[in-house]
Specification:
280 residues; D-Maltodextrin-Binding Protein, domain 2; Double Stranded RNA Binding Domain; 3 domains; 5-stranded mixed beta sheet; 24% strand
């Protein structure tokens, strides 16, 4: 049986697709697995900020379309890249075991006033400025290797990347410090790899599903989806296995509303009410 895995063509994306392929072959030694690289809107447009091209979903839409059209059988995504909007015809059939969900500071092992930090993430920008308002946050796009190269070329003091991606590429030595979640709350789904299939075909990858990762990531995605329905500000959500924490922030870090709880919907509503009152 041939199983075609749709993936972005970056080195990290192909590494993650390779992890999925290895897991499928381990589950079924007779499985014939092929990786199909693709280019997404986020890959083609490397200059504009994510918000201008649709921050969530810009790295998954074309792969989802290929899945719906039957050109691939499984879409392999970084779970943090997935839109919170549910596509009725598709389902996440499995999450691979989550790796380090934290953000990593590369190029330095501390933050201090006046540093030039590269990141294209509104979530990271808001939280970094809340920690140190005198940072200079500069937009930085590209894959991991490109951003590390641009850090040196532009003379930036540091950049912020997902620790899991660096670890998967064997670039953990580039990390100056793994930023505590109390300082930088991760993106919903960060550190997890999602295997998306057509609805009704979940059995194709079900043996690979890590239940604890699913429980945490689905809670995060649910909370962010509800917040997104009524808020355009930077948001974050992370479940540590015990408690779900989420936040809404001002894009310049002037204020952050952060709450923890068990019910994703109730938590989202509490945050939306708090930020509405703050802006009133």
């Amino acid at each position: 049986m041939l199983i075609r895995l749709g993936s972005r063509g970056s080195r990290l994306a192909l590494t993650q697709a390779g992890l999925a392929a290895e897991a499928l072959r381990a589950a079924d030694p007779d499985a014939d697995v092929a990786i199909v690289p693709m280019t997404t809107a986020g890959d083609r447009d490397r200059s504009r900020p994510f918000g201008e091209i649709g921050e969530r979903g810009v790295f998954v839409k074309e792969i989802e379309e290929a899945l719906l059209a039957g050109r691939v059988d499984v879409a392999v995504h970084s779970a943090k890249d997935m839109t919170s909007t549910v596509v009725d015809e598709l389902a996440v059939g499995a999450y691979l075991p989550r790796e380090d969900p934290r953000d990593a500071l590369c190029g330095a092992d501390f933050l201090q006033s006046g540093m030039r930090i590269g990141t294209a993430s509104a979530r990271r920008r808001a939280q970094l400025l809340a920690i140190e308002p005198e940072l200079s946050i500069e937009p930085l796009r590209g894959n991991i290797e490109t951003r590390l190269r641009k850090m040196a070329e532009r003379g930036l003091d540091a950049i912020v990347l997902a620790a899991a991606g660096l670890d998967r590429l064997g670039l953990g030595a580039e990390i100056g410090i793994r930023l505590p979640r109390a300082d930088l709350l991760p993106e919903a789904g960060q550190g997890a790899v999602a295997l998306q299939v057509r609805a009704g075909e979940e059995e194709l990858v079900a043996a690979l599903d890590d239940r604890e990762t699913r429980r945490c990531v689905e809670a995060e995605r649910s909370c962010v989806a509800r917040i997104g329905a009524g808020c355009l500000a930077p948001v974050a959500a992370h479940h540590d296995g015990r408690t779900l924490t989420a936040l809404i922030a001002d894009e310049d870090g002037r204020w952050i509303e952060r709450r923890s709880g068990e019910d994703p919907a109730a938590l989202a509503d509490e945050l939306l009410a708090a930020t509405a009152a703050l802006r009133a």
